[in-house]
Specification:
- This protein is of the alpha+beta class.
- It folds into three domains: 60 residues, OB fold (Dihydrolipoamide Acetyltransferase, E2P), CATH 2.40.50; 68 residues, DNA polymerase, domain 1; 44 residues, Helicase, Ruva Protein, domain 3.
- It contains ten helices and five strands; from the N terminus they run E-E-E-H-E-E-H-H-H-H-H-H-H-H-H.
- It has a five-stranded antiparallel beta sheet with strand order 3-2-1-4-5.
- Helix 8 runs antiparallel to helix 9.
- The N and C termini lie far apart (39 Å).
- About 9% of the residues have low confidence.
Length: 201
């Protein structure tokens, strides 16, 4: 299993990125919580990874911290929660926020995420109790995301719209979320972060 990658970031197009590791290009899917902290393309990056092997595909998922990967691994063990939905949950909630949802039995916060219905939210709250990974990582909570804009022919808002659709939002909902963000000088990751925060209010 591939558990860790260190290499040069070639391209980032949320929720996917391309990493050059000694001449081999790895296509990796990552939650927005990881994208917020990625450097500019061309710089080096380190990711904790999880490989899922299926008959029709080998999918590699990357995370900026071990605690995010641990939560991802716990989420995909829940009945009805696949890798895509797990990425959506990690994109919409930090590990600490998810922990608080489970502790506070807050199904409403989970239902606001695309693809999470009432039954799935209740199953998550029940199944995840006692199975949450160790969350003692103060640096993760204290760190302020440093977002960078990747070079692309598409505008940041167009990139954000595509990323939100890839995370499971309906095109009309994603468009509404992006249009509600003011400011033409924001990068793609900034727009996505603000749009996701807006859905949780």
């Amino acid at each position: 299993m591939i558990g860790f990658l260190r290499g040069r970031l070639l391209r980032k197009n949320p929720p996917q990125l391309l990493l050059d590791v000694q001449g081999v290009g790895y296509e990796v899917e990552a939650p927005m919580s990881t994208f917020y902290n990625l450097p500019m393309p061309g710089e080096n990056v380190e990711l904790f990874t999880h490989l899922i092997v299926r008959e029709d595909a080998h999918s590699l998922f990357g995370f900026g911290s071990e605690v995010e990967r641990s939560l991802f691994r716990a989420l995909i063990k829940v009945n009805g929660v696949g890798p895509k939905l797990a990425l959506t949950i990690l994109s919409g909630l930090t590990v600490d926020e998810f922990h608080h949802c489970v502790d506070g039995n807050d199904a409403k916060a989970l239902v606001r995420l695309p693809g999470v219905g009432q039954k799935t939210a209740e199953r998550l709250l029940i199944d995840m109790r006692g199975r949450l990974p160790d969350l003692h990582q103060a640096s993760m909570s204290a760190a302020s995301p440093q977002t960078q804009r990747a070079s692309s022919t598409a505008s940041p808002k167009q990139e954000a719209l595509s990323a939100l659709c890839a995370l499971g939002y309906k095109p009309q909902d994603a468009t509404r979320m992006v249009q509600a963000i003011a400011g033409d000088d924001l990068g793609c990751e900034d727009i996505i972060r603000l749009a996701l925060k807006g859905t949780l209010k």
